[in-house]
Fold this sequence. Notes:
Layout: E1 4-10, E2 13-20, E3 28-29, E4 57-60, E5 65-68, E6 71-72, H1 73-79, H2 82-91, H3 97-108, H4 117-122, H5 130-140, H6 154-180, H7 193-202, H8 213-225, H9 233-242, H10 248-259, H11 267-278, H12 284-292, H13 313-328, H14 335-349, H15 351-355, H16 362-373, H17 380-401
Antiparallel strand pairs: 1-2, 2-3, 4-5, 5-6
Bound molecules: carboxymethyl coenzyme *A.
Amino acid sequence: MAEKKAVLKIGxxxxxxxIQSGTLGPDVIDITSLFKTGYFTYDSGFNSTAAxxxxxxxxxxxxxxxxxxxYPIEALARKSNFIEVCYLLINGELxxxxxxxxxxxxxxxxxxxxxxIRNFFNGFRRDAHPMAIMVGVVGALxxxxxxxxxxxxxxxxxxxxxxxxxxxxxxxxxxxxxxIGQPFMPPQNKLSYAENFLxxxxxxxxxxxxxxxxxxxxxxxIFILHADHEQNASTSTVxxxxxxxxxxxxxxxxxxxxxxxxxxxxxxxxxxxMLHEIGDASQISKxxxxxxxxxxxxxxxxxxxxxxKNYDPRAKVMRETCHEVLEAVGAHNDPIFNLAMELEKxxxxxxxxxxxxxxxxxxFYSGITLSAIGIPxxxxxxxxxxxxxxxxxxxxxxxxxxxxxxxxxxxxxxGPAQRDFVDLxxxx
Length: 428
Ligand code: CMC
């Protein structure tokens, strides 16, 4: 029995609801039984609604805190690596040395894709957006593993998780290679996860590539920072799809579709488009004024966040990495990067952005960093999807391993009341 109760008074009637407490964060009023009163809640955009219980990630948007399984994101980004973070997100604890070795080796041994997967690529135009290819190819993976798709079987869930984490860089790099007409590069087991991705992206059969350690480290950090983020739009999509009993590849494919939009994962791509649209520093004030104008739909991409009303902790770490990479590739004098730094400075001082707490978010810096690494803009969201796959899988697995119900939101219907059908000829 919950100790604290909330009382809802509607007219003369009173209804009592349990209040539940988590480890951190606001208490929640459990309104599961509210529908019995004849009412639903209305919460467009899920501003005040917890749709699930989870032990994976915690965000305090006011204080600018992000924890994976209790560990601050800054510590993980500085002291850990992406594979260790994947283990942590999926299993709940940091691995021992032996557990780490086994997990890393398991991932490495699932990086290849079935030869038939190549054929899917040939069905796409060369100029297809890589996210369009990604949605299709990841969904199609479910056609290759019929024998391990029983979602009630923990071993099947585990091998699906490994496959997804391991194959995403391979598929992502294939999307790129296909678009530029170069041969697909097979993964190499001796390389780290980030190095392998760089090798499959930029290597060619004619030349051995040696990934730059600063770039590989930066990419690994981007993966860590994007690995999970609580119940965001794409994760909620994965959970909703998963609640129907759909297989994990179909669910992750649904998540990729949700991530694509510019208000979510598409923002890092939109940042670069915006910087090119602004053109040079003399135009910044014009665009800042447009962003402030309530009648103009233009927004400064890479600024603001639904949950963080303080500096995005991921952005803090990403900012450092961004500067390291700009230095390493000698892009500090590149006009687009100078423009980005100028925009950051002005937006951080502008009364509108300060008052509304619209700080630069992680995508502002990740977009600039990826661009400096030489990754084409249309691949940015693909890289976000690659990194977020572990979060999606961990959240999906958490849901399936515990009691859950089909996700089925209700609505406030404002359409026509019931009316009689009129035959076509009688309609005027
Ligand atoms: N530029 C200008 N004004 C903005 C911006 C912006 N980037 N973001 C929010 N505002 C204003 C908005 O117009 C509104 O003003 P008012 O109160 O006068 O109506 C106020 O700030 C609150 O905005 P909101 O749209 O109610 O806030 P939200 O929580 O629904 O939006 C957001 C969050 C991320 C969609 C929004 O800040 C935005 O569109 N930012 C640009 C896109 C972006 O960078 N997205 C990446 C988010 S981080 C990646 C991820 O975690 O997925």
